[in-house]
Every structure is written in structure tokens, then in C-alpha cells.
Design goal:
Elements: H1 10-19, H2 38-51, H3 53-71, H4 75-86, H5 98-101, H6 105-115
Helix pairs in contact: 1-3, 2-3
Length: 118
């Protein structure tokens, strides 16, 4: 994923992260995620932060929220939350972290307007 995409603002940046399959960074591999821990998160957010600090912060919060969901997960929660996070698709309810729920054009447009980026 070229870091130049990060300079286009949060909407394009978050879309690039989804397309690169990084929404499941902290989701266990058995649920379709990448199964990375803190080292992977720090490495990626540091690189993102050099290009766009807003994107880096959003991505970091998404990964931490995903890890919290997975920490005490049950079979029901694994299918309801972890797989949708790993697949970068919105889940059936609003608890799914922000990066995956921003798939709709209206959500992306609202995020861009709020950030002031174009």
C-alpha cells in the first residue's frame, strides 16, 4: 500500500487500509484476520503517522477496539464481530469499529467533511 494514498485525507486513507486488508490486523488468523500483536500495530501506525497522523490515530484506535472485542470473545461474537472486522465489512450492529463501518459513501463523505480534508 503506497503511503502516498495517506496524503489524500482520511477518506482515501481509510479506504486504502481496507483495500489492503489491514482492518483485521489484530483479529486472530482463525477468524480471517492477520493475527498481529502490538509490534505489528506499532510498526504500521508509525509508518502511517509519518504520512497522516489522523489516519494513524484512527487506524490505531480501530485495531485496539478490535483487539478488545476479541479478547473475551465467544463463538457467537467471533462470527458476529471478528469476521466482519477481518473482512472489512460492516457488521449487523454499530459496535463494529469505525474503519469497517465507513464503507458507505454517506459515512465516508461525512468523515471527510468533519475532518476538513477534500
Amino acid at each position: 500500500m503506497p503511503l502516498m494514498a495517506m496524503r489524500l485525507g482520511p477518506g482515501a486513507s481509510l479506504s486504502a487500509l481496507r483495500q489492503a486488508g489491514l482492518t483485521g490486523l489484530s483479529v486472530p488468523a482463525m477468524f480471517g484476520g492477520l493475527g498481529e500483536g502490538l509490534l505489528g500495530l506499532v510498526t504500521i501506525t508509525e509508518a502511517l503517522g509519518a504520512a497522516c497522523s489522523s489516519t494513524s490515530m484512527c487506524f490505531g484506535m480501530h485495531c485496539v477496539a478490535s483487539a478488545v472485542i476479541g479478547a473475551k470473545s465467544s463463538a457467537h461474537c467471533d462470527e458476529k464481530y471478528q469476521r466482519p472486522i477481518a473482512e472489512a465489512r460492516p457488521g449487523p450492529d454499530p459496535i463494529i469499529p469505525t474503519l469497517t463501518s465507513m464503507n458507505s459513501p454517506a459515512s465516508r463523505d461525512a468523515a471527510v467533511r468533519k475532518s476538513g480534508h477534500r
